[in-house]
């Protein structure tokens, strides 16, 4: 028996798991294995329910890293399905901006023929902060566009697909080279406010910043200041510390900022169940689980 904790897709998970003859319920007290949205799993843990394995249906698991929660279970997350979606999101924004597509939509509405010059992504520098699977897929497409791709990871180790990698301690040096910075960082104590007044100050005035990782990594006040003073050319935010973003947030009216409601990469139940069933077979055969999360690191 598997416990499904999902507000959005319970019936879809149930239907897909039934194809594999897997019985399900929504009561965490009667199951050792939870297929769960992290926030709902955290709530169940606080109610003293104790699983052996939590299979997160998302990549991000920050709700389960809180200091008051137990860590005596195995935690896995979803991987290797978000890279293409994140990549599409990043380049949709870059290409739309570079080719002035919103301008032409408005020009068409006004029946105006007003061509405007544009640049190319070729020979521009993209700095990707987070060189895991998603970062590597973004890097592959950036390279195909002729961009120079620099990576940032914890220790500066070389990663295939990046021309050079910097350590996190060298973040400012890396950002100073960028035409666009893309953050894919998870939410940990080490990533909180990593992008702040000092890091934005190192960037070129035309450069852009895109965050598809987690909202805690960005000092919002510093970002607003950088955009309003034209210290930074533009920004795109898909993730925020508080979601939904409050109606009174100053971000809504910040110039040169695009906001989207955490839509860069969705979890599709069919893909989630596919990975879960494969891992369930490993669990039943007492083999090591794939996509384990280090609860101390948060990823």
UniProtKB/TrEMBL annotation:
Q: Which SUPFAM superfamilies match?
A: NAD(P)-binding Rossmann-fold domains (SSF51735)
Q: Which residues form the D-isomer specific 2-hydroxyacid dehydrogenase NAD-binding domain?
A: 91-264
What's the source species for this entry?
Answer: Ferrimonas lipolytica
Name the domain of life: Bacteria
Could you identify this protein by its name? D-2-hydroxyacid dehydrogenase
Recorded GO terms, molecular function?
A: NAD binding; oxidoreductase activity
Keywords in alphabetical order: NAD, Oxidoreductase
